[in-house]
Amino acid sequence: MDVTSIVSGLSGSGWFEMAGKVVLVFTFITGLFPDKVISGIPIIGKLWPIANWLAGNVFNNVNHPKGVKALKEVEDEIDAAKKKVPERVGIADTLDGV
Length: 98
Description:
Layout: H1 3-11, H2 14-32, H3 35-39, H4 42-55, H5 71-84, H6 90-97
Helix pairs in contact: 2-4
């Protein structure tokens, strides 16, 4: 079974297409507005966590109060967190870390 047969099988499924559209729409919506702005709107603020969950963070949105200006800051935080994780080489090291 190759990737092409998996993709063609799923693309013919109505539910897979609908799920893809839902993720795409909610990713677009949650990427447009920072959480801080939306949390101040009464009804939408309550539904916003659901929208974030449905978005699935597919495109790794930087949903930061500073907006895109915080991209470098967020990337630096991610790099610093990665440096704290010990590098594992081989299956024995990986299993020891579990």
